[in-house]
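Fold this sequence, please.
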Amino acid sequence: MFLRNLKKLLAKDKAPQHLTQKNEQAISKLKIPKDPVERNLEGQKLEKMGLIENAIEYYLANVNDQFDGNYPYDRLTTIYRKRKQYDKEIEILEKAIWVFENKVYKKRGDRLPKLEKFKTRLKKAMQLRDSN
């Protein structure tokens, strides 16, 4: 699906800068960036282009790597909430809470506010799931 969407975008010259080569071989070799910040930036670009499924792949790569920033968790939970995929939202929030409790530097200034935000969102997501 990713390659099909990408090929459509390339035909319209709307692909992200690192995806603008029209060579079929280059397209088939594209991979999610290794740098977590780059994944977030490219995920954001993909979202703006309407390629939500592809953006999800980029954000999930950061979640799986236990990224210690809030961006991929926030984006995924927002996407899943809009889709009413509460189980997926809950899974991401639980991972975010674990990362912020166990991986994020304890004295980091934004750690506790973000942790509390994730916990509040988790309660709300569980209420929404249970009411549906």
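Residues 1-65 form one domain. The first helix runs from residue 2 to 12.
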